Amino acid sequence: MIVESADDLEVVAEVGDGADAVGAVQAHRPDLVLMDIRMPRMDGLAATAAVRALPDPPKVIVLTTFDLDDYVFRALQAGAAGFLLKDTPPKDLIAGIRVVAAGEAMLSPGVTRTLIQHFADDSRSDRQHAAAARLTGLTDRETEVLVQLGHGMSNAEIGRTLFMSEATVKTHVSRLLDKVQAGNRVQLAIVAHEAGLLEK
């Protein structure tokens, strides 16, 4: 009901569990999937991985609550383009769908940082070392862009902050995705956090 209230959005299918979600994506070829986490038969984590493994897969936004942080983190690693809380206001839900459909990730800065920092446990030093190793070879400018991206800024915001055109920012982000071997902006933000870049 919320999604179809927007003139530029259309719901092509609704399903009750993750297993059916994979079949529905194959049948209807949507541009984007809103994925719940807790579902019968196949949960949203497995369904996200399965959907993202399909040829020319749709983008995935995970719907969650704070008590499911671990599932969300793993879903993001599996290729989800972002997440929204289940109590997200309707207008923000629609805005989030449009942002992800346009090719950007839903990086709600405060919530994303809270989620990522949830995993700052005893193995942090190992993860920090591994993340830092992935960032070797970045130029100073690429590192600056990565830091701003890690704080949840859009390409336009990064451009204004670092005094460069949005097109130049997009080029840097593309190079970062390639050099860091990340699937999307959310994964770049996770690496930036784990490498300690956001604490400086």
UniProtKB/TrEMBL annotation:
Keywords: DNA-binding, Phosphoprotein, Transcription, Transcription regulation. GO terms for molecular function: DNA binding. Pfam families: GerE, Response_reg. Residues 131-196 form the HTH luxR-type domain. PROSITE patterns: HTH_LUXR_1, HTH_LUXR_2, RESPONSE_REGULATORY. The keyword DNA-binding applies. Residues 1-101 form the Response regulatory domain. The modification 4-aspartylphosphate is found at residue 36. InterPro entries: CheY-like_superfamily, NreC/VraR/RcsB-like_REC, Sig_transdc_resp-reg_C-effctor, Sig_transdc_resp-reg_receiver, Tscrpt_reg_LuxR_C, WalR-like. GO terms for biological process: phosphorelay signal transduction system; regulation of DNA-templated transcription. This is Response regulator. The lineage of its organism: Bacteria, Bacillati, Actinomycetota, Actinomycetes, Nakamurellales.
